[in-house]
Amino acid sequence: MTFAVVVFPGSNCDHDAYHAAKHVLGQQARFVWHKETSLGDADVVILPGGFSHGDYLRTGAIARFSPVMAAVREFAGAGRPVLGICNGFQILLECGLLPGAMLRNRDLKFHCEHVHVRVERTDTPFTSLCSPGQVLKVPIAHGEGNYFAPPETIDQLEKQHRVLFRYCTPSGAVTDQANPNGSLNGIAGICSEGRNVVGLMPHPERACELSVGSADGLVMFESAVHAMSRAGALQAVAR
Amino acid sequence: MKARVFVTLKPSVFDPQGHTIVEALHSLGYGDVSDVRQGKFFEIDLAVKDQAAAEKLAAEVADRVLANPVIESFKVELTKAGAQ
Amino acid sequence: MSGIDQAVLDRHGIKDDEYERIVSLMGRTPNLTELGLFSVMWSEHCSYKSSRVHLKTLPTEGPRVVQGPGENAGAVDIGDGLAAVFKIESHNHPSFIEPYQGAATGVGGIIRDIFTMGARPIALLDALRFGPLSESQNRRILQGVVSGIGGYGNSIGIPTVGGEVMFDETYSGNPLVNVFCLGIAKHDALVKGKASGVGNPIYYVGAKTGRDGIHGATMASAEFDEKSAEKRPAVQVGDPFMEKLLLEACLEVMATDACVGVQDMGAAGLTCATSETGSRGGVGVEIDVALVPQRETGMTPYEIMLSESQERMLLIVKRGREAEVERIFEKWDLHAVKIGEVQDGDRLRIRHNGALVADVPNRALTDEAPLYRRPFQAPPNRAELAAIPATARGTQPSPRESFLSLLGSPTIASKRWIFQQYDYMVRTNTIALAGAGAGVVRVKGTSRALAMSVDGNGRFVLLDPRQGAKLALAEAARNVACAGGLPLGGTNCLNFGNPERPEIMWQFAEAVAGLGEACRALDIPITGGNVSLYNETDGKAILPTPVIGVVGVIEDASRLTLRAFPESALDIVLLGDNLGELGGSEYLKTIHGLVRGVPPALDLARERSLLQLLVGLSADGAVRSAHDCAEGGFAVTLAECCFENGGVGAKVDIPSASSDGGIDRLAATLFGESASRVIVSVEPSKTAAVLAKAAGAGIPAARIGTTGGAIIEIAIDGTAAISCQLSEAEARWATALAAALAHRAA
């Protein structure tokens, strides 16, 4: 199982995603430079957090034009798993692989803190080992995590059950107070219509070891491995 | 030619920066300022002499890169290079 | 004619005797460009001319020192062939002029000092000083500085894992922004800032050069007056994205062995980088400034040499390896341009399109800079400062009232409003989350962690500079030891007023003497640092503020000891003696508006013993938490142990202090700031062993109470003194800073 972590100029959390996949989970992992045009033998693609291109112009606005994104688009189109974390989520929004946009946090301040999110759906490669309604303690670190989309888009997301994570209290209540940035409907993460492209603002790769404050994020990586091995097993059966 | 591109948030999008600026202006006594929306302004030098072509190029650049059509709209103004 | 007259010399900050020295070293009159080179290299900020004679007395050697002062940063061995590379630097004057960019470029500058040595930066700390938040100017400066630190640090992806903030009137108009950075490198991969090898190409890489920051070094060497607002153009704008690219590309280049030397361009830009690398290597350097990538037109050689444009590096590359180096920088979309070559001899030769425009002996700019033995004299008001006025002896507010006032004072209150704007978790190494005492990061690939702290109580230094400096080092070391870190080395940022005033120079000389004495007694060598002088406006100086950064190693990261009580029903043990010393205390300042008295005593032998005890207790897993007593004394420290821990309070009974601190015994007992004291929590089954260990180390220790409950209860000799709901105390502490910034009553 190979995790490919795309590195854009200005990505910072690439090392953290790599560490989680390789050293914590024990899977294969490698970096893919943004100028490469092939993802090679990747089974899962991660667009990591950071400040690609300094967040200049808009977060993710320039990275989405990187040569590697054509390969990412193709990978996603083939139904394979893509995870966009924080800046990675912003890049997926800018290139249209996920709908909506990010605004500045409503209090105009950068927030670095642990928050709680409720898992709304377990039918994606990154939440398949979660239980519905499970509460995860994960860190956020962003200045522009205020998710916005026009009302029709929000409606569609909700109707199609494509909201995967919502900010909540430790006991799982989705309240305005638990919402750190003003995101509509407390949305912390969503998925594509094919359910294989997932984007979220919190950092699960920063919550894979108790020593750094929480290990609740590991289940997302484990889910990817589980989903892939099931897919592999099903393919074998189908043959 | 020079193009000036004004990018602003769509009216439906809440603008916390503009809101904060209004509050600050009010606290300074500018009660007559009723609203402020913060946007972005780009000055672009185009190596294109034809007005129509310049307008098309500027609009394409604005639509594809400078503005995010989900939340922003834009306006393009052209001036001859050298003019103010 | 070189066109140099008195007005030109004044503009360049060059005194008459300095000019004579220049002429003598050059063997002729300098031209304007050459004068410019001297003006920046001989500025206080670059040459340390007022401070070098004193700094030379600091201990800089030790068995774990891998690199002492003299390079871009210092380094200590942390085991497994790895070194921790670290330094602290100031960006005070620019942060007053333009708070966001002043602070941002301060962060950028210190980060470059670390990666220029071949080390990947993994942690930042900052020590900030501001005037009272009741003034809008100070609120604006604090917000700008915090935004700037966050804006730069977050973008480049290096976590700010701790720091400290203190407030005092003397910092209005002269805020202090000291930034500390630490990185990791293999010993044998450390790169020096030295040019060598005649014929080796000299490369310039990074951002284009513009006119920003010209004479930044001279600005940092002068006081502010009403004309200061006009100095705005001298503040540079930082580009953290460019620096991130530079950092990754440079580390990639340095991992090959294609470079013989690397230096960043900071204060005095290209002038400093070329003359210092040449001097260190004992070689000549010749460059053609027309080859320097420029972002403005018509720049003169003078401007190009003095520019302080950010995010630029100088690399001395092995001849023959140019293509390799250029390819790596190309990958990161950076300009790497050959601008010159290492020469035989010892001169710095600047050409412009081939024509020689400046030719000076390297060492004249660096080692031969003036060395001043400035006169110093104790101020006449020492006796007055040492006495606590009778007015303070009247009726005190109730202990409970004073307790809450102290918790709500911005110097003591929670700094969460600040550090939550910093990404303190990026790189997943932070194991002691910010606000918890020393900042601690694990070292991946080993079982170790590094603990670090910056401290420097200016009030103590004002009242007795020698003693205050000792206390600053001791506090930083104690913070590190509380986390379980064995202190390995220190770095100092010495912030003082105008050294041409004998009383200020006396403060400086005394502080350095005290620092040296404490470093020797505690076995903590100084590996490098920074001096910032002329921190005064209209003749009024800041509190003399030596900020000391200490780095320690925790051999087993899983033994990290935090400061908050982790659960109920633990024993609370107090290590150390309460001498009830209120001199220079936060109590005296907050409740009585005074900075008076003598700072607490410090028994360095006992402190040394205490540090070793703390490291041992942590390594053995014998204590569940450890927090040292500092501002606000025992009561505030105890409260801090009860905050952000899930609601675990405390009930203690402590003996009365041995003195009334010149004011009131109750206040002295609760809020006195005697040194060498630590509050630890212990499993009841281990308390006897802990007490025995302390006794064996010669540290007074006593069990004073238990953790738990929803109340903070402090009794003195059996009589209740403070009883406060934990929620009330914590709310006061948690909201005070935000309230002060919104300028509303808490």
Low-pLDDT regions of chain B:
none
Distance between the termini of chain B: 12 Å
Which of globular, elongated, flat, extended, rod-shaped describes the shape of chain C?
globular
Please count the beta strands of chain C (DSSP E, at least 2 residues each). 28
Mean pLDDT of chain C: 94
Helix content of chain C: 25-40%
Rounded Rg of chain B: 16 Å
- SSE string of chain B, helices as H and strands as E: EHEHE
Helix content of chain B: 25-40%
Gap from first CA to last CA of chain C: 65 Å
Textual characterization of the structure:
The complex is a heterotrimer of chains A (239), B (84) and C (746). Chain A has 239 residues and is an alpha/beta fold. Chain A has one domain: Rossmann fold. Chain A is built from five helices and eleven strands. The longest helix of chain A has 21 residues, at 218-238. Chain B is elongated and about 45 Å long. Chain C has 746 residues and is of the alpha+beta class. Chain A binds chain C through residues 9-10, 12-13, 15-16, 19-20, 23, 33, 35, 49-51, 53-56, 109-113, 139, 141, 143, 203, 205-206, 208-209, 211-213, and chain C through 150, 154-157, 239-242, 244-245, 331-333, 419-431, 433, 442, 444, 557-558.
